[in-house]
Write a sequence for this structure.
């Protein structure tokens, strides 16, 4: 008996080099004692820098993790069935925290919040609510590789890229937005919306006020939706500030356009709190129909009552969250500086960034030629010879070869130092992309590999191909 279309042909969504890198790491993971020659994981955007703060809070508040409230057991209350609306105490605590990490410039109404099992489920649920199979969403490149799975796989929705390059620091421009819209139309795709990550994964940069205005004006003009995935909102360590899409909306006077109802936000505690295993995410929308539909859909990926209960106690502790957010940013800033400095000593620069758990590394000068094939060659060498798993730009759909996402918050300082040391030694001794005369093919020409319409349109999910 054959399996379903989704279970077989569509499952190639995890074939990208991003996922391959994660699998290769699993075969030979670095361990200081047991496997010192193994691969160091720098392809995972995890935040392990402030676990001690969370652990101290847990030790000081034992009731929270022991099914107790004011010393009394609440085990039975938690063990029983909870409906899909979520625990009010947790929703209140979460909206307060969301506001706090946005500098209290915006406030959130818990009635407009839908809890989901992480941002993965939040993004997919929103797509299910806003688009039908065969519709399209526009996404600025480079983007988080997981989106090819999260937004397309089960929904049958297509992603159309909004191109950006290093020529302007990978910023979103009006012509690029229009070009993507036209590309979608040329492919007979109905554009239902635009999705951005702010701060950006993989760039580690925040969208400027100008870009945010551009996006809001664009979706207003085209009559489409905007999803702002703000999963990294609490990682901004400066200098440029973070402006939430909800802050932009609050200030904009957009009378009678209904635009407020077409802007939706995604959040999660996976990055800011370093809790991806807890699976806590949220959708925030001003459109009550979206909130209502998404709440029903959240049945497929609820957050357990136990987790909600623990986190409502933690996030309600204002003194703790204030200290945590400030200290976590300080640690991220110092780690980021350490990696940038180390790479610089190896002759490698990074895109200037102010947020996230990664750097966007510019290794164009190490490529044999300015092609995506050469990028893959270099990536494999870094993985197999230097033994670092980083993510090639092409896995993030970057059109310019030679960029890599390098994570810095999922390991100890010693491991990061070792990774930098390995790279430095290898750059000095291994002739990555150099030819037999020892010359590196520097990126002197403008050799950006432009994807053709067909290349973009046809690796898409093709829901109607069966
Ligand atoms: C931009 C972005 N959105 C969503 C996710 C998924 O997060 P979660 O673990 O909350 O599902 C990630 C994870 O890396 C991400 O970077």
């Amino acid at each position: 008996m054959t399996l379903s279309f989704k279970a077989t042909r569509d499952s190639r969504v995890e074939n990208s080099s991003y996922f391959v890198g994660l699998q290769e790491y699993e075969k030979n993971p670095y361990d200081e004692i047991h496997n010192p020659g193994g691969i160091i994981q720098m392809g995972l955007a995890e935040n392990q820098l402030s676990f001690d703060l969370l652990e101290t809070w847990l030790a000081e508040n034992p009731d929270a993790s022991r099914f107790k409230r004011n010393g009394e057991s609440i085990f039975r209350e938690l063990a029983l069935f909870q409906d899909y609306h979520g625990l009010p105490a947790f929703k209140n605590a979460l909206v307060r925290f969301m506001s706090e990490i946005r500098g209290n410039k915006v406030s959130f109404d818990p009635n407009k919040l839908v809890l989901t099992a992480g941002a993965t489920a939040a993004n997919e649920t929103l797509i299910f609510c806003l688009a039908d199979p065969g519709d399209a969403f526009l996404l600025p490149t480079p983007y988080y590789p997981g989106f090819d799975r999260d937004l397309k796989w089960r929904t049958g929705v297509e992603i159309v890229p909004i191109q950006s390059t290093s020529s302007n620091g990978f910023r979103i421009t009006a012509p690029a937005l229009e070009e993507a819209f036209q590309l979608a139309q040329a492919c007979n795709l109905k554009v239902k919306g635009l999705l951005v990550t702010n701060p950006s994964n993989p760039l580690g940069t925040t969208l400027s006020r100008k870009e945010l205005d551009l996006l809001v004006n664009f979706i207003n003009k085209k009559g489409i939706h905007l999803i702002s995935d703000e999963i990294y909102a609490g990682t901004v360590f400066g200098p440029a500030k973070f402006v939430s899409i909800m802050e932009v909306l609050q200030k904009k006077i957009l009378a009678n356009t209904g635009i407020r109802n077409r802007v939706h936000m995604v959040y999660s505690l996976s990055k800011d709190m370093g809790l991806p295993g807890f699976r806590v995410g949220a959708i925030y929308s001003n459109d009550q129909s979206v909130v209502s539909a998404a709440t029903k859909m959240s049945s497929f990926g609820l957050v357990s009552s136990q987790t909600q209960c623990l986190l409502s106690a933690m996030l309600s502790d204002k003194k703790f969250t204030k200290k945590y957010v400030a200290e976590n940013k300080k640690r991220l800033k110092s780690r980021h500086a350490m990696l940038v400095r180390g790479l610089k000593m190896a002759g490698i620069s990074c895109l200037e960034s102010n947020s996230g758990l990664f750097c966007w590394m510019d290794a164009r000068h190490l490529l044999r030629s300015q092609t995506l094939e050469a990028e893959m060659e270099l990536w494999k060498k870094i993985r197999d010879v230097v033994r670092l798993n980083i993510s090639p730009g092409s896995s993030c759909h970057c059109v310019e070869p030679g960029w890599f996402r390098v994570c810095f918050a999922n390991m100890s300082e010693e491991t990061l130092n070792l990774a930098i040391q390995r790279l430095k030694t290898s750059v000095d001794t291994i002739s990555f992309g150099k030819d037999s005369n020892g010359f590196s093919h520097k990126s002197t020409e403008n050799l950006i590999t432009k994807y053709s319409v067909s290349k973009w349109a046809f690796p898409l999910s093709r829901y109607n191909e069966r």
